[in-house]
Amino acid sequence: MSDSQIDTSKRLLIFSIIHNLILIGIMACGVYLFTFSNIESDIFSFSFYILIVCLPVILYIKFVFKINLISYLKLNKPSIKNACIAMAIGVFVFIVFFAVNGFRFSPNLNFKRDIVFVLGTVMVGVFEEISLRGFYLQVLESRMGFLKANILSSLMFACLHAITLLKNSENMMLSLIVFMIISLWLGYIFKKTKSLWVPIIVHALYNLIVYTT
User: What is the pLDDT of residue 77?
Assistant: First the structure.
């Protein structure tokens, strides 16, 4: 490995550690130290995912990697095939969740009242995919192969959700396993389709489905 490659790896390692510590720290503060109203919680979550989860990796790709952002993240216009794959997966997941819920929507469902929350829930999928699949999965894959990279990036995905699970979930271990499986699946979809739009659409639809059912 050349000196320049070593320096690049060191910078990337330092960035990854700092970025993830900041993610965990701010998320923990938001969950445990502050009490938000519904609107304040939505604003905090939206700002967190834009400014802390997504923006740093975009800036790193742009100014450190110095390569085309859209091409690197594989955000070019999706093919009709990939769009159909994403929608088919989304419909399948909806049918499964809808069936498990007795073919009934959530009794608390109120799109007019919760429109900001609904939009935020959908957009979270976009921001998480850009950071975790678009950036971290690809960076790790280039250094350790897809299988290990997918597992490690999925652990990061699970840890990001673990903070809220500690406070809100009665069965944290089961929930973490579910998040791991979902993340591994999204990573596999990204690998096979070579388009970040597919896991973005699937993730966003999954979040919307969880809310509505």
Answer: 80
Eight-class DSSP state of 31? H
Measured CA to CA, the distance from residue 169 to residue 167 in angstroms comes to 6
What CA–CA distance (Å, rounded) separates 177 from 128?
A: 18
Give the separation between CA 26 and CA 14, rounded to whole angstroms. 18
Nearest to 210 by CA among 133, 124, 86, 149: 124
- Report the pLDDT averaged over residues 161-177: 70
CA distances from 28 to 48, 162, 175, 183 (A): 12, 10, 18, 21
Its pTM stands at: 0.84
Q: How far apart, in whole angstroms, are the C-alpha atoms of residue 167 and residue 77?
A: 39
Structure tokens belonging to residue 26: 């701010």
| Token reading at 109 | 């469902």
